[in-house]
Amino acid sequence: MAQLKILLTRIDDRFIYGQDVELWNGTVGSNLVLIVNDEIAADSRQWAPMRVAAPEGVWMRFFSVQRAIDIIHTATPRQWILIMVASPADALALVKGGVPITKISIGHMQVGEGKHPITPAVAVDDADVAALKELQKLGVELEIRYLPSSNPDSIQLVI
In degrees rounded to 5, what are phi and psi of residue 12? Predict the structure, then answer.
C-alpha cells in the first residue's frame, strides 16, 4: 500500500478563507483539501463559498470525522492532501481513528464561553487543552502558526 501524502493538517475554526487556502496550498502544494467536520459535512449549503476559495486545480471534499477515517486510506499516491479541522477534538479523533497525522499547525481558535486566549488568535478551554496534550502524548508535533511565512510557536511553550 502506498503511503498517504498528508502534507499538512491544520486546526482553524474559520475553515476556508481564500487567503488561508491560497497561502497554505501555495506553500505545501496540495491538490486535495479535506474539510473534516461533522457540521460542515452535513450542511452542503456551506460548501459553495469554500469551493470558490479553493485555487484552480485543487479539489475540495467535505467529510465527517468518521467518513474521513473510513476513506482516507483509499487516497491515491497522486493525491497530496491538506486536512483542515475546526478543533483539537476533531484532530484527535482522526489520529485515534488511524489517520497518519504527524504534525498539526494551529491557526485560529476563536474566543468563546469558557475559553481563554493563549495567543492573540488562539483561545482554548479545558477540553481543547486535554485533546492537545493527548495529541502530544501520541507523538503528534504541534505548532501555532498564523501564516506560512510566520515563525512557529511551540504549543509546549504555551500550555
Answer: -155, 110
Q: Are 140 and 130 in contact (CB under 8 A)?
A: no
**63, 58, 72: which is closest to 25 by C-alpha?**
58
H or E element, residue 84: strand 80-85
- Rounded Cα–Cα distance for residues 127 and 93 (Å): 13
Measured CA to CA, the distance from residue 98 to residue 47 in angstroms comes to 26
Enter the pTM of the model: 0.90
Residue with cell string 481564500: 18
Contacts of 138 (CB under 8 A, 6+ apart): 95, 96
**Cα gap 95→124, rounded to integer Å:** 20
Least confident piece of the model among 53-57, 99-103, 113-117: 53-57
Please check whether the domain covering 5-157 is classified as CATH 3.40.35.10. Answer: yes
DSSP string, 8-47: EEEEETT---HHHHHHHHHHH--SEEEEE-HHHHH-GGGH
Segment 47-71 mean pLDDT: 86
The region, left, alpha or beta by phi > 0 then psi within -120 to 50, assigned to residue 139 is: left
Location of C-alpha cell 495567543: 119
